[in-house]
Every structure is written in C-alpha cells, then in structure tokens.
Amino acid sequence: MAVDLQPGDMAPDVTLTTPDGGALTLASLRGRPLVLYFYPKDDTAGCTREAQDFSASKAAFELAGVGVLGVSKDPPARHQKFAAKYDLTVSLASDEDGSVCEAFGVWIEKSLYGRKYMGIDRATFLIDADGRIAKLWRKVKVPGHVDQVLAAAEALPKA
Question: What pLDDT, on the 0 to 100 scale, is given for residue 134?
Fold first, then answer.
C-alpha cells in the first residue's frame, strides 16, 4: 500500500547520504523547521530550475529559520557535479536505494507518451521543528513553487 502522509503526521525518520558520502538522519535535523523537496534527476531542465530557485531563496529561508534539503536517487558524486555546475547553494542528499522515496510516498507510477514507469513524484514537505509535516505539495509545478513554500515557511509558528 502506498504511503499517504498528511499534515500533522510525523515525518519518517530516514537516513540519507550526503554528497561527501556521509549519513544524515532526519531526526538529527529536528529542532529547526526543514523544507524537504524530492526531485526526479540532477541536471534536467525542471530539476535544475527548482534547485536554482531554492538556491536563490536560501537566504530568505535562513532568515525564516528554515533549512532546505533536496533529495533524488542520484549518487553523491553526481550531486557534487550538479551543485558545482550550477553554483547551487542548497544542500542535496542521495536516496540511491529508494527507501526514503518509499517512506515519503513519492516513488510512483508515471506515464510518458503512453509508457508507464516508476519514478519520483516532484513533491515538497515542510517539516516543523518537532518533526511533523506542516504542509506538503505533490505533483509540483516548478514556476512559482519556491515562493509558495517560502510563504508557508515564514508562516510557521516561531519557537
């Protein structure tokens, strides 16, 4: 059965791989709100634009006291190249085995030109300082999305 997380649910405590090959748990990030965004693939048009938009707004998220972390199934070395190529300032993490995508319910069946395949649903989760999902966006359209997420992040209650 597919995972259907809703606002108010605890975010799954998952482990991601950082670009330098280290391990990062979501539980270790509690105490500060976090934007966790899932995207299909490094260095593709929509994913690049989304990462650039989050990078451009990084200072505003920091001012709101909110971290930003992008996740795809790309390996750490590819994240390093992607970040360097586009001067990205947001943090990226790898979910090579797909367990994090499964835990958040973003590994879905997609269709392109009538061909069905499994892939990452472009989705964003705003997680509060206690580790609960405050807001989520599924089937994200990139233009204007970061502004919506920032507005929701700024509206979070301050600790």
Answer: 96
Is the Cβ–Cβ distance between 19 and 76 less than 8 Å?
A: yes
Burial of 47 (0-12, 13-18, 19+ CB in 10 A): buried
pLDDT number for residue 157:
82
Long-range contacts of 24-32, Cβ-Cβ distance < 8 Å, separation of 24 or more: 24/93, 26/127, 26/131, 27/131, 29/67, 29/69, 30/129, 30/130, 30/131, 31/129, 32/65, 32/66, 32/67, 32/129
Output the CA–CA distances (angstroms, integers) from residue 7 to 19, 27, 47, 95, 131, in the order listed. Answer: 29, 18, 25, 23, 11
pLDDT tens across 24-64, in order? Answer: 999 999 999 999 999 999 999 999 999 999 999 999 999 99
With tokens 């958040």, the residue in question is 104
Helical pair 76-86 and 45-56, crossing angle rounded to 10 deg: 70
Task: Give this prediction's pTM.
Answer: 0.94
101 is catalytic: no
The one catalytic residue among 34, 47, 149, 150: 47
> Could you tell me the domains of the chain?
31-154 (3.40.30.10)
